[in-house]
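User: Can you write out an input/output pair for a complex, sequences first and structure second?

Assistant: Here is one pair. Inputs:
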Amino acid sequence: MNPWRESRVRRLGQRLAQGLLDRTHLGRDLLVLFALTGWALAVPHYGSDFVVSMALTCLMYVALATSWALFCGTTRYLSLATAAFFGIGAYTSALFIDSLGWWPVIAAGAGVAALVAVVMGSAVLHLRGTYFAVLTFGMTELIRHAVTYWEKQVTGTVGRVLTVVPERDTIYLTVLALAVLAVAVSIVVRRTRFGLGLMGIGADEQRAQTLGVNTRLAKIGGFALTAAFAGAVGAAMSVRWTYIDPATVFSPFIGFQTVLIALIGGIATLWGPLIAAVVFSLLAETLRLQAPQAYLMTLGLLLILCVLYLPGGLASLRWSTFGQWREDTRAWWRELRRDKRRDEARENAT
Amino acid sequence: MVPVSFAVLMATGIAVHRLTFRRLAATSPNVDVFEARGLMVAFGLMFLVQNFAQLVWGADLRGYDYLTDPVQVAGSQFAANKLLLLGLSLAFSVVLIVSLRMTLLGKGVRALMQSPTGAQLVGIDTRRLHPLMFGVGLGLSGVAGCLLSMTYTITPSMGEPYTVTALIVITLGGFGSMGGALAGGLALGVIEAVGMHFTNPSLKSLLSYAVFIGVLLWKPNGLFARR
């Protein structure tokens, strides 16, 4: 490598590190978060019931996707276990809401989910790639079937109806608080040693280990943090739904949709999951009423297109991306024409 | 109908490979990223196809009768179509394994699994072989679907449990090992059936997931992996 280039690379690295620890970006991020929070706080005062419930769905996915990206986006461990933590939170809330208060129940949901994540994480976090994804999916299904079995055998019913339900605005504010907390935590964590360690694991795990990151602890901690958010959101949402059964709260769809939103938004970015969560919840609510299959088909198609043409996610979309696409398409055309010409030449020769 | 479904799905497979996986392989920096992205694309395809089927044919249960008369074999009664199913699926597995072991084409495929670059270096046309193998894989799953429709009712979402079962079986046998997958599949079926007999039918899926997770934790490379 020539010296000029080396110094350029080093300067780039320094700028990147500064950007991460930069106060100006911190200020900007916090300001945007503050503005969004203020706007979301105002929604119940002027919106109709429908608008509020739509905003609630948006916030739920914002919290889930942001907290998912916090761990899985930085470390590139693809976890499909969000549904498990969500369901655990929901069941904790269903079981204890009568005896505990509202806030303790949310905390309990987060706590139980984090506990399960620590146990699960210490068992499976040494596996990478597809194994990790498949194993977390298997664990989710195992937990779902175990809960179904337990409900059938011990309590005799499969579903639960929640009778003590707080007001709509309380639930809305709780979920809003969780979403804001998730974004705030990921703003802060990105700038701490812990967050940089997670990012190092994503770039090259062995190197991070050599440079003194306790990868095992960092991974389990990150996984538990994600799980705690999912559990808290589950605890809050189960009260909103008022009727829960294992098939709905442990639905793998919750996990998939979270992953999808984060992927489409851009897993390594801060605002990508948030933007995608809002776009998707709105799209879901409008399309689901008219054509449920069309909604899921759009989802599948978008996922494929996003993975193929926009691996960095929506948040990585810049003006230059369009130029890149145009270049790609032109190169493809040229290749096609060249192939055709070559075939023709071959035919003429024979 | 079996050859027709094989051909149709093989064509679909080659088309899908050309549209998505070729670009995916070209743009992914390493195998890990390729696997993760491939998984996501596959799930996207699942959503797409499943809901397309639901839109076109509706979500009703369907089925037909074919060879449902019972047959006596060694003192026990079996439905004829289930015996046919067993025979045909065994035959297909054996043909696949033998052709992978014995023929030149199979040798090329195994080389491709070991090292794509190396295979290209010794003169294997990977750009043609890879889509072909993808097509054969999808074609075989088409055959499986065709055989299953003889004995079970069909719905657009019937594939999901089988996807999970297939993943379990493959990880049980170890990725890329044919004999391992065959043995793993048979073992999983036997464990499920015996376990259900001794405990409780509603424990069936619990049991298969427990076996899966246990095996992965105990031997992450699969039961029959050679090192």
